[in-house]
Predict the structure of ATP synthase subunit a.
Amino acid sequence: MLLFAGTPFAMNRIMIIRIIALLAIVLIFWLGTRKMKIVPGRFQSLVEMGLDFVRVNIAEDLLGKKDGRRFLPILTTMFFMILFFNLTGIIPVLNIAGTSVIGVPIVLAAVSYICFIYAGVRKHPAAFFRNALFPPGVPWFLYIIVAPIELVSTFILRPITLTLRLLMNMVVGHLLLVLFFSATSFFLFTAGGWWSLLSIGSLAFGFVFTLFEILVAVLQAYVFALLTGVYIQLALADEH
């Protein structure tokens, strides 16, 4: 523990990084929206572009304007929280993604799952679970097979796959960066001699994978918010 050791508020390195990322989110959106103008400046335009991206490409595209506005706050929060937490993995000194320890992915997957259940029960209070487990139009004798499959795939595997997809992508990316930059340090400062030439290659690969990790950070934020929107859309579908 780095801060408040021995107290209920003890924080390790990963928790401090998450708090830094959270403060960065609050600061950026506060600065971008505190003096809104009809003709926005560059920073306000950048913030509005980010918000519009989630609104148009995830919320309204999947759920329509009415339901999209209902679930827009949670989808926007998920997208930017995951994005900023992911990006801490490539920032010098921090060097680890806030989502690369399972706690945050589990919480986000649980929130996604709760939104899915809430949307379905709110829209179809009497039929949601029945139609999810016993899809209409299936011969009755096949429900012996279909119902367990639907139970596992819809109500068990979804939160698990959301958690593991986010967690493993960020862990693997972190390990690759550690590997390449550790190899660079080894070849340059420990091995010495002709081995130092290999540090050029490992450093180049490290730089390339850093750029790739930025892409992965953005994609994982988009995919997580998108899948949450898809699950909500399925819960709201008329067949339920």
Q: What stands out?
A: The mean pLDDT is 90. The chain has one domain: 59-236.
